[in-house]
Amino acid sequence: MRRSVLDKLISYVGLILAAVMLVAGGLLTWASVFVAGEVQTQFAAQDITMPSQSDIDKLENPADKAALQPYVGQKLTTGPQARAYADNYILAHMNASSGGRTYQQVSGEYMAMPDKTTPEAQQAAALRNTLFQGNTLRGLLLYGYAFATIGTIAGIAAAVAFVAGIVLAILGFLGLRHARAAGAETVE
């Protein structure tokens, strides 16, 4: 086999891979931009304002305070804000109101009560409902956070694909140039 034929073969494979990587980079960029836009639009439509400084100061856990501090009073429009709000504000209030018990635990206690008309049962039912709503809101916010994270990962993957595509294209063109220079050399 002539050296120039081998160089051309390898170079063309590299150029095809470069094209695939560049197309992938474009699709990943589109996905990243789309997800970021949708997450921002959907969160903005909910019109949630992050806690004020005085609300943050009322929290007991220093980790909750630290997680919320960068977003004081801002409109919730990003995945990281949604995660902080869900995990460090809503959950903190849920835990405070239930004494650290989960919805499942409170619901089980309520369901085990023989008389649902007592004041204690009514209080348990209200707490159960509050925890259910809190879990639902947390879940929706955390889904938004997950999608925002997927969009971020797609953006990083797009950058990697573009760089790989450019490197492969350069190497492919250099290989074709070398094939012309190699001419009639043979591989042994």
Describe this structure in a few short sentences.
Helix content is 80%, strand content 0%. By secondary structure, the protein is an all-alpha fold.
List the helices and strands and how they pair.
Layout: H1 3-46, H2 53-57, H3 62-68, H4 79-98, H5 103-112, H6 119-182
Provide structural commentary.
It contains six helices and no strands. It is mainly α. It has one domain (3-182). The chain is elongated and about 95 Å long. The mean pLDDT is 93.
Keywords:
mainly alpha
Helix content: over 70%
| Low-confidence blocks of residues | none
How many strands in all?
A: 0
Q: Helix and strand string, N-terminal first?
A: HHHHHH
Estimate the strand proportion: under 5%
Strand count, sense and closure of the main sheet? none
Q: Class by helix and strand content?
A: mainly alpha
Distance between the termini: 8 Å
Number of domains: 1
Question: If helices are DSSP runs of H or I spanning 4 or more residues, what is the number of helices?
Answer: 6
Write down the overall geometry.
Answer: elongated
Radius of gyration: 28 Å
Write down the overall mean pLDDT: 93
